[in-house]
Design goal:
276 residues, 9 helices, 8-stranded parallel β-barrel, TIM Barrel, two-stranded antiparallel sheet
């Protein structure tokens, strides 16, 4: 399965067009929780046509604040109504002192942060009565790091007993900016916990800096890293194409979806032959 984000500005194409044919759709649940009227009808029709995946923005698992149980109640109701196959979130924080910062900020790579974040994830899982899937995020400077990013992610997934959303572009961005080997990084992740994969483009703003923007086409080195990842994972994991702005012609989006699917199919065949 290879999917794309469901967007209001070309919702008609999802429902009745022929230029874009994803296997599933993804939304941020915050954008659709409690919605009514015309857009509720449109969204309901979309979820009846496509399997639904969700990728949240507001859980803020790294926040020092208490969990927002009013938000979680609304989220649980949304999940019960629309039954998404995956609820995923970011390994980051976006709230502090009850203020929303409208950005996904990095969590310090420390043992205390592991305990704090893992506890919050377990609490969310208990409340929602399901496992959640946590994404490795891009970051541009480490914050008071006592361990590596790789050790931090592995410890969170193990202690929280959650699943992993592997964002291949985020690994590429971080590896470029912080000068480590992306393939080595992916090889050492808890790949048995990978339930979902994201692919996206980025923007190079300087010779030594690229930014995870989701506003450009995927480049060949990221496709190559994706191929490497699938051969290691050796499972048909759902993959999402993220494109949040600077949207191209829909036929170009479909071309990217087709390329992701082709790479995944060939990589799984190669992995299967290697095992046999």
């Amino acid at each position: 399965m290879v999917g794309v984000g469901f967007r209001k500005d070309f919702s008609d194409e999802f429902l009745s067009g022929n230029q874009l044919n994803p296997d599933f759709i993804e939304v941020a649940p915050e954008n659709w929780m409690g919605i009514g009227g015309y857009w509720k009808k449109v969204f309901k029709e979309a979820t009846e046509k496509y399997p639904l995946f969700t990728h949240g923005l507001s859980l803020s698992v790294g926040s020092p604040d208490e969990l927002d149980y009013d938000f979680l109640k609304g989220l649980k109701q949304f999940i019960q109504e629309y039954k998404p196959l995956v609820y995923s979130e970011h390994l980051s924080f976006s709230k502090c002192d009850n203020a929303h910062m409208y950005d996904l900020l990095p969590i310090p790579f420390t043992a205390d942060a592991v305990k704090h974040v893992a506890l919050r994830i377990r609490q969310v899982q208990d409340f929602l009565e399901q496992r959640i899937t946590i994404e490795n995020v891009s970051y541009y400077t480490p914050v008071a790091a006592e361990m590596s990013e790789l050790e931090f992610i592995g410890a969170i997934v193990k202690e929280a007993d959650c699943d992993l959303l592997l964002d291949v572009n985020n690994v590429y961005v971080n590896a470029f900016n912080h000068q480590y080997n992306a393939q080595d990084f992916i090889r050492q992740l808890p790949l048995d916990r990978v339930k979902y994969i994201h692919m996206a483009g980025h923007t190079k703003v300087a010779e030594d800096l690229i930014i995870d923007t989701h506003g450009e086409a995927i480049i060949d080195p990221v496709y190559q890293l994706f191929d490497y990842t699938i051969k290691l994972v050796q499972r048909d994991v759902p993959v999402l194409l993220e494109r949040d702005f600077n949207i191209p012609e829909l036929v170009e989006l479909q071309h990217e979806l087709n390329r992701i699917k082709e790479i995944k199919t060939n990589a799984l065949k190669t992995a299967s032959h290697a095992i046999s």
